[in-house]
Amino acid sequence: MADLFPTATIGAEVLPDETEASGASFGRSWKFDFETGEFVQTPTGRIAVAQDTDAWLEWCRKALATERYRHLVYSRLYGQEFESLIGLGLSRAAVESEIARIASETLLADPRTARVGTFSFSWEADACRFACSVTSVRDEAGTIEGSVVSL
């Protein structure tokens, strides 16, 4: 009869593909449609999966959409603080500067993110839409979009 309690192998090998030299693991994530607020489904009705760089970009989008300190399930390092801009009466240039700073701090909290930059802004009344480029430690890049309302 097979052993019901197998012994663990001490000093098990870690495959080099699992973790980058930087210590960042890209892994996988579920795809999410931020416009509809629903998970993306495959034609068979399963939730679609993002791998590697796409999973990291999903994390970036989610981090910029989540208010920091609002949900106890997340660490204190996760999310953004765009709400702190409401009611400060800052000029548009100052708001854009703060958006760039907050978004950069938010995205650089992840060890997979190497750089954040090339911000662009567009205003509609009191709402500021922005886009920025992000580059991973693997030197793969993507564009992340977000919006902030500053009253």
UniProtKB/TrEMBL annotation:
Q: InterPro entries under this entry?
A: Sheath_initiator (IPR020288)
Query: Would you say which domain of life the source belongs to?
Result: Bacteria
- A Pfam family annotated for this chain is Sheath_initiator
Q: What is this protein called?
A: DUF2634 domain-containing protein
